[in-house]
Protein backbone atom coordinates (compact mmCIF):
# COMPACT_ATOMS: atom_id res chain seq x y z
CA UNK A 1 0.00 0.00 0.00
CA UNK A 2 1.41 3.39 -0.89
CA UNK A 3 1.22 6.07 1.76
CA UNK A 4 -1.08 8.06 -0.50
CA UNK A 5 -3.72 5.37 -0.33
CA UNK A 6 -3.38 4.76 3.38
CA UNK A 7 -5.77 7.52 4.40
CA UNK A 8 -8.24 6.64 1.72
CA UNK A 9 -9.10 3.23 3.15
CA UNK A 10 -12.83 2.93 3.60
CA UNK A 11 -13.62 6.43 2.48
CA UNK A 12 -16.56 7.57 4.53
CA UNK A 13 -19.14 10.09 3.47
CA UNK A 14 -19.63 13.21 5.58
CA UNK A 15 -23.07 11.96 6.54
CA UNK A 16 -21.71 8.61 7.75
CA UNK A 17 -19.02 10.39 9.74
CA UNK A 18 -21.65 12.60 11.37
CA UNK A 19 -23.72 9.57 12.33
CA UNK A 20 -20.67 7.86 13.82
CA UNK A 21 -19.79 10.98 15.82
CA UNK A 22 -23.36 11.20 17.19
CA UNK A 23 -23.40 7.51 18.11
CA UNK A 24 -20.08 7.81 19.89
CA UNK A 25 -21.37 10.84 21.79
CA UNK A 26 -24.45 8.91 22.93
CA UNK A 27 -22.36 5.86 23.88
CA UNK A 28 -20.19 8.03 26.14
CA UNK A 29 -23.14 9.37 28.07
CA UNK A 30 -23.76 7.71 31.43
CA UNK A 31 -26.08 9.69 33.66
CA UNK A 32 -25.09 9.44 37.33
CA UNK A 33 -25.93 11.34 40.47
CA UNK A 34 -22.63 11.27 42.35
CA UNK A 35 -20.92 13.89 40.25
CA UNK A 36 -18.10 14.32 42.75
CA UNK A 37 -16.96 10.69 42.59
CA UNK A 38 -17.26 10.64 38.87
CA UNK A 39 -15.07 13.69 38.65
CA UNK A 40 -12.41 11.61 40.38
CA UNK A 41 -12.87 8.66 38.05
CA UNK A 42 -12.63 10.96 35.06
CA UNK A 43 -8.96 11.43 35.88
CA UNK A 44 -8.59 7.92 34.48
CA UNK A 45 -11.43 7.64 31.96
CA UNK A 46 -12.46 10.92 30.40
CA UNK A 47 -15.50 9.36 28.74
CA UNK A 48 -17.39 9.10 32.05
CA UNK A 49 -19.72 11.99 31.48
CA UNK A 50 -22.65 12.94 33.63
CA UNK A 51 -24.26 15.48 31.40
CA UNK A 52 -24.32 19.18 32.14
CA UNK A 53 -26.37 21.16 34.60
CA UNK A 54 -27.36 24.78 34.80
CA UNK A 55 -24.33 26.98 35.49
CA UNK A 56 -21.76 24.39 34.36
CA UNK A 57 -20.60 26.74 31.61
CA UNK A 58 -18.43 28.70 34.02
CA UNK A 59 -18.22 26.32 36.98
CA UNK A 60 -14.72 24.99 37.69
CA UNK A 61 -14.69 21.26 38.45
CA UNK A 62 -12.62 21.34 41.67
CA UNK A 63 -11.83 17.62 41.82
CA UNK A 64 -11.26 17.09 38.14
CA UNK A 65 -8.67 19.91 38.03
CA UNK A 66 -6.60 18.70 41.00
CA UNK A 67 -3.95 17.03 38.78
CA UNK A 68 -3.51 20.36 36.96
CA UNK A 69 -2.95 22.15 40.26
CA UNK A 70 -0.67 19.41 41.61
CA UNK A 71 1.47 19.62 38.50
CA UNK A 72 2.01 23.32 39.26
CA UNK A 73 2.82 22.52 42.89
CA UNK A 74 5.29 19.83 41.80
CA UNK A 75 7.56 22.61 40.48
CA UNK A 76 8.29 23.47 44.12
CA UNK A 77 9.91 20.05 44.35
CA UNK A 78 12.99 21.71 42.92
CA UNK A 79 13.71 22.93 46.47
CA UNK A 80 14.32 19.31 47.45
CA UNK A 81 15.72 17.70 44.31
CA UNK A 82 17.98 20.55 43.20
CA UNK A 83 19.18 20.79 39.63
CA UNK A 84 21.77 19.38 37.25
CA UNK A 85 22.69 20.17 33.63
CA UNK A 86 21.13 16.83 32.66
CA UNK A 87 17.80 17.70 34.29
CA UNK A 88 17.68 21.11 32.61
CA UNK A 89 18.59 19.63 29.22
CA UNK A 90 15.79 17.07 29.57
CA UNK A 91 13.29 19.79 30.55
CA UNK A 92 14.29 21.98 27.57
CA UNK A 93 14.23 19.06 25.12
CA UNK A 94 10.81 17.95 26.31
CA UNK A 95 9.51 21.51 26.00
CA UNK A 96 10.75 21.68 22.39
CA UNK A 97 9.54 18.25 21.31
CA UNK A 98 6.12 18.64 22.92
CA UNK A 99 5.62 22.23 21.74
CA UNK A 100 6.20 20.95 18.20
CA UNK A 101 3.80 18.07 18.86
CA UNK A 102 1.11 20.54 19.91
CA UNK A 103 1.69 23.05 17.12
CA UNK A 104 2.48 20.71 14.22
CA UNK A 105 0.20 17.80 15.10
CA UNK A 106 -2.61 18.76 17.50
CA UNK A 107 -3.03 22.15 15.86
CA UNK A 108 -1.99 22.12 12.21
CA UNK A 109 -2.75 18.45 11.52
CA UNK A 110 -5.64 17.32 13.72
CA UNK A 111 -7.43 20.67 13.99
CA UNK A 112 -6.81 22.07 10.50
CA UNK A 113 -5.74 19.08 8.36
CA UNK A 114 -3.04 21.27 6.84
CA UNK A 115 -1.22 18.23 5.43
CA UNK A 116 -1.71 14.51 4.92
CA UNK A 117 -0.01 11.50 6.39
CA UNK A 118 -0.40 7.73 6.82
CA UNK A 119 -2.60 6.21 9.49
CA UNK A 120 0.42 4.88 11.38
CA UNK A 121 2.11 8.28 11.46
CA UNK A 122 -1.18 9.87 12.45
CA UNK A 123 -1.25 7.61 15.52
CA UNK A 124 2.34 8.49 16.43
CA UNK A 125 1.50 12.21 16.04
CA UNK A 126 -1.44 11.75 18.40
CA UNK A 127 0.76 9.94 20.93
CA UNK A 128 3.31 12.76 20.85
CA UNK A 129 0.54 15.35 21.18
CA UNK A 130 -0.92 13.50 24.17
CA UNK A 131 2.47 13.66 25.93
CA UNK A 132 1.96 17.45 26.24
CA UNK A 133 -0.72 16.74 28.89
CA UNK A 134 -3.31 18.85 27.07
CA UNK A 135 -5.88 16.06 26.85
CA UNK A 136 -6.57 13.90 23.81
CA UNK A 137 -6.56 14.71 20.09
CA UNK A 138 -10.37 14.73 19.72
CA UNK A 139 -10.79 17.08 22.67
CA UNK A 140 -8.04 19.43 21.52
CA UNK A 141 -9.00 19.59 17.85
CA UNK A 142 -12.75 19.84 18.47
CA UNK A 143 -12.48 22.75 20.88
CA UNK A 144 -10.04 24.48 18.58
CA UNK A 145 -12.32 24.15 15.55
CA UNK A 146 -15.10 25.59 17.68
CA UNK A 147 -12.83 28.55 18.51
CA UNK A 148 -12.21 29.29 14.83
CA UNK A 149 -15.89 29.06 14.09
CA UNK A 150 -16.91 31.59 16.74
CA UNK A 151 -13.65 33.47 17.41
CA UNK A 152 -14.26 36.32 19.86
CA UNK A 153 -18.02 36.00 19.59
CA UNK A 154 -20.30 35.10 22.51
CA UNK A 155 -20.09 31.36 21.74
CA UNK A 156 -16.25 31.32 21.73
CA UNK A 157 -15.11 29.18 24.69
CA UNK A 158 -11.97 31.19 25.35
CA UNK A 159 -12.22 34.74 24.12
CA UNK A 160 -10.35 37.30 26.30
CA UNK A 161 -12.69 39.94 24.90
CA UNK A 162 -15.77 38.14 26.17
CA UNK A 163 -14.62 36.70 29.50
CA UNK A 164 -11.28 38.32 30.36
CA UNK A 165 -7.65 37.23 30.49
CA UNK A 166 -7.73 34.43 33.09
CA UNK A 167 -10.75 32.77 31.58
CA UNK A 168 -9.21 32.72 28.12
CA UNK A 169 -5.84 31.60 29.51
CA UNK A 170 -6.97 28.66 31.66
CA UNK A 171 -10.42 29.06 33.23
CA UNK A 172 -12.26 27.81 30.17
CA UNK A 173 -10.74 24.34 30.03
CA UNK A 174 -11.12 23.83 33.78
CA UNK A 175 -14.86 24.43 33.60
CA UNK A 176 -17.32 21.55 33.64
CA UNK A 177 -18.83 22.56 30.31
CA UNK A 178 -15.55 22.23 28.45
CA UNK A 179 -14.33 18.89 29.80
CA UNK A 180 -16.05 16.76 27.16
CA UNK A 181 -14.84 16.93 23.55
CA UNK A 182 -17.19 18.53 21.02
CA UNK A 183 -17.38 15.38 18.96
CA UNK A 184 -19.64 16.73 16.27
CA UNK A 185 -16.86 19.10 15.27
CA UNK A 186 -14.45 16.23 14.51
CA UNK A 187 -16.36 13.53 12.57
CA UNK A 188 -13.27 12.97 10.43
CA UNK A 189 -11.25 11.99 13.53
CA UNK A 190 -13.88 10.11 15.53
CA UNK A 191 -13.86 7.31 12.97
CA UNK A 192 -10.40 6.14 14.13
CA UNK A 193 -10.70 3.83 17.17
CA UNK A 194 -7.06 4.39 18.10
CA UNK A 195 -7.68 8.15 18.37
CA UNK A 196 -10.83 7.55 20.42
CA UNK A 197 -8.77 5.34 22.75
CA UNK A 198 -6.08 7.99 23.27
CA UNK A 199 -8.76 10.60 23.82
CA UNK A 200 -10.68 8.52 26.32
CA UNK A 201 -7.64 7.51 28.39
CA UNK A 202 -5.89 10.85 28.05
CA UNK A 203 -3.84 10.42 31.24
CA UNK A 204 -2.17 7.25 29.98
CA UNK A 205 0.56 8.79 27.82
CA UNK A 206 1.45 11.49 30.40
CA UNK A 207 1.62 8.80 33.12
CA UNK A 208 3.96 6.68 30.97
CA UNK A 209 6.14 9.71 30.30
CA UNK A 210 6.36 10.51 34.01
CA UNK A 211 7.22 6.89 34.89
CA UNK A 212 9.85 6.74 32.14
CA UNK A 213 11.48 9.93 33.36
CA UNK A 214 11.66 8.53 36.88
CA UNK A 215 13.09 5.25 35.60
CA UNK A 216 15.70 6.92 33.37
CA UNK A 217 16.68 9.28 36.19
CA UNK A 218 17.17 6.39 38.62
CA UNK A 219 19.14 4.49 35.98
CA UNK A 220 21.42 7.46 35.28
CA UNK A 221 21.85 8.07 39.02
CA UNK A 222 23.01 4.48 39.52
CA UNK A 223 25.18 4.10 36.41
CA UNK A 224 26.61 7.61 35.95
CA UNK A 225 26.55 9.29 39.39
CA UNK A 226 28.83 12.07 38.05
CA UNK A 227 25.79 13.52 36.22
CA UNK A 228 24.30 14.37 39.61
CA UNK A 229 20.75 13.40 38.71
CA UNK A 230 18.16 10.89 39.90
CA UNK A 231 14.58 9.80 39.30
CA UNK A 232 12.84 12.47 41.34
CA UNK A 233 14.97 15.24 39.85
CA UNK A 234 14.13 14.22 36.28
CA UNK A 235 10.48 13.91 37.27
CA UNK A 236 10.36 17.46 38.68
CA UNK A 237 12.28 19.04 35.79
CA UNK A 238 11.26 16.88 32.83
CA UNK A 239 7.61 16.46 33.74
CA UNK A 240 6.64 19.16 36.28
CA UNK A 241 8.53 22.28 35.22
CA UNK A 242 8.72 21.49 31.51
CA UNK A 243 4.97 20.76 31.29
CA UNK A 244 3.92 23.83 33.29
CA UNK A 245 6.05 26.13 31.12
CA UNK A 246 4.70 24.39 28.02
CA UNK A 247 1.17 24.91 29.33
CA UNK A 248 1.41 28.62 29.83
CA UNK A 249 3.30 29.19 26.58
CA UNK A 250 0.51 27.37 24.71
CA UNK A 251 -2.23 29.21 26.59
CA UNK A 252 -0.83 32.62 25.59
CA UNK A 253 -2.16 32.04 22.08
CA UNK A 254 -5.70 32.01 23.44
CA UNK A 255 -5.18 34.88 25.86
CA UNK A 256 -2.43 37.27 24.70
CA UNK A 257 -2.54 36.62 20.95
CA UNK A 258 -6.12 37.90 20.87
CA UNK A 259 -5.09 41.11 22.68
CA UNK A 260 -1.52 42.20 22.00
CA UNK A 261 0.21 42.64 18.65
CA UNK A 262 -0.51 43.93 15.19
CA UNK A 263 -3.30 43.14 12.77
CA UNK A 264 -2.32 42.69 9.15
CA UNK A 265 -5.73 41.37 8.17
CA UNK A 266 -9.12 42.75 9.15
CA UNK A 267 -10.45 39.39 10.34
CA UNK A 268 -13.79 39.27 12.13
CA UNK A 269 -12.03 38.44 15.43
CA UNK A 270 -9.39 40.28 17.46
CA UNK A 271 -6.44 38.01 16.60
CA UNK A 272 -2.94 39.55 16.56
CA UNK A 273 0.48 38.90 15.12
CA UNK A 274 3.05 38.89 17.90
CA UNK A 275 6.75 38.21 17.31
CA UNK A 276 7.54 37.25 20.92
CA UNK A 277 4.67 34.81 21.14
CA UNK A 278 5.74 33.33 17.80
CA UNK A 279 9.22 32.67 19.23
CA UNK A 280 7.81 31.10 22.38
CA UNK A 281 5.34 28.89 20.53
CA UNK A 282 7.40 28.02 17.45
CA UNK A 283 5.33 30.09 15.02
CA UNK A 284 1.85 30.16 16.51
CA UNK A 285 2.19 33.81 17.50
CA UNK A 286 1.36 34.85 13.91
CA UNK A 287 -2.18 34.42 15.03
CA UNK A 288 -3.82 37.10 12.90
CA UNK A 289 -2.25 35.46 9.83
CA UNK A 290 -3.58 32.15 11.08
CA UNK A 291 -7.14 33.37 11.60
CA UNK A 292 -7.04 34.90 8.15
CA UNK A 293 -6.01 31.63 6.53
CA UNK A 294 -6.40 28.82 9.08
CA UNK A 295 -5.97 25.97 6.62
CA UNK A 296 -2.38 26.86 5.67
CA UNK A 297 0.48 24.76 6.93
CA UNK A 298 2.47 27.89 7.74
CA UNK A 299 1.56 30.80 9.97
CA UNK A 300 4.53 33.06 9.31
CA UNK A 301 3.59 34.46 5.92
CA UNK A 302 6.67 36.64 5.33
CA UNK A 303 10.27 35.40 5.27
CA UNK A 304 11.03 37.23 8.53
CA UNK A 305 8.02 35.82 10.36
CA UNK A 306 9.82 33.02 12.16
CA UNK A 307 7.77 29.82 12.16
CA UNK A 308 9.80 26.87 13.48
CA UNK A 309 6.80 24.56 13.18
CA UNK A 310 6.62 25.21 9.44
CA UNK A 311 10.35 24.54 9.00
CA UNK A 312 9.93 21.31 10.94
CA UNK A 313 7.00 20.25 8.75
CA UNK A 314 9.03 21.00 5.62
CA UNK A 315 11.67 18.63 6.99
CA UNK A 316 9.07 15.94 7.65
CA UNK A 317 7.74 16.41 4.12
CA UNK A 318 11.27 15.95 2.74
CA UNK A 319 11.42 12.54 4.44
CA UNK A 320 8.13 11.51 2.82
CA UNK A 321 6.37 11.06 6.17
CA UNK A 322 3.83 13.80 5.39
CA UNK A 323 2.65 15.25 2.08
CA UNK A 324 0.17 17.60 0.41
CA UNK A 325 1.10 20.56 2.63
CA UNK A 326 -1.56 23.20 2.11
CA UNK A 327 0.00 26.39 0.83
CA UNK A 328 -1.17 29.97 1.00
CA UNK A 329 -3.14 31.57 -1.76
CA UNK A 330 -0.73 33.70 -3.83
CA UNK A 331 -2.14 37.00 -2.52
CA UNK A 332 -1.16 36.14 1.07
CA UNK A 333 2.44 35.24 0.37
CA UNK A 334 3.73 38.75 0.62
CA UNK A 335 7.48 39.08 0.55
CA UNK A 336 8.23 35.39 0.20
CA UNK A 337 8.31 33.76 -3.18
CA UNK A 338 6.02 31.09 -1.75
CA UNK A 339 7.77 28.32 -3.58
CA UNK A 340 7.26 25.82 -0.80
CA UNK A 341 6.54 22.41 -2.19
CA UNK A 342 4.98 19.54 -0.37
ZN1 LIG B 1 -7.51 32.40 17.97
ZN1 LIG C 1 -6.10 27.20 14.54
Task: Give an overview of the whole structure.
The chain is mainly α. It has one domain (10-332). Helix content is 55%, strand content 1%. It contains 17 helices and two strands. The chain has helices at residues 3-6, 14-28, 35-41, 66-74, 78-81, 85-111, 119-130, 137-150, 160-163, 165-174, 187-190, 193-200, 204-223, 231-255, 275-280, 287-292, 308-319, and strands spanning 116-117, 322-323. A two-stranded antiparallel sheet has the order 1-2. It is globular. The protein starts with a helix and ends in a 19-residue tail after the last strand. The model is unreliable at 1-11 and 335-342 (pLDDT under 50). Residues 107, 111-112, 144, 148, 290, 294 line the site of one zinc ion. One zinc ion (ZN) binds at residues 147, 151, 258, 271, 287, 291.
Amino acid sequence: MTPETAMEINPMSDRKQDILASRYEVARFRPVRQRRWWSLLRWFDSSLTTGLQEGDGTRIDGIRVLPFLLLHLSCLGVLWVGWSPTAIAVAVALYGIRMLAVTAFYHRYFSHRAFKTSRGAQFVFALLGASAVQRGPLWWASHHRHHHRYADQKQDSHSPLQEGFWWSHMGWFLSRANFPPKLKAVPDLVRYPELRFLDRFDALVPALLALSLYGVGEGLGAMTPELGTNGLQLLVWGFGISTVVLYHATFTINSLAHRFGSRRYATSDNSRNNFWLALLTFGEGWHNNHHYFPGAVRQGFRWWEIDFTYYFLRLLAATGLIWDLKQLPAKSRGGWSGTARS
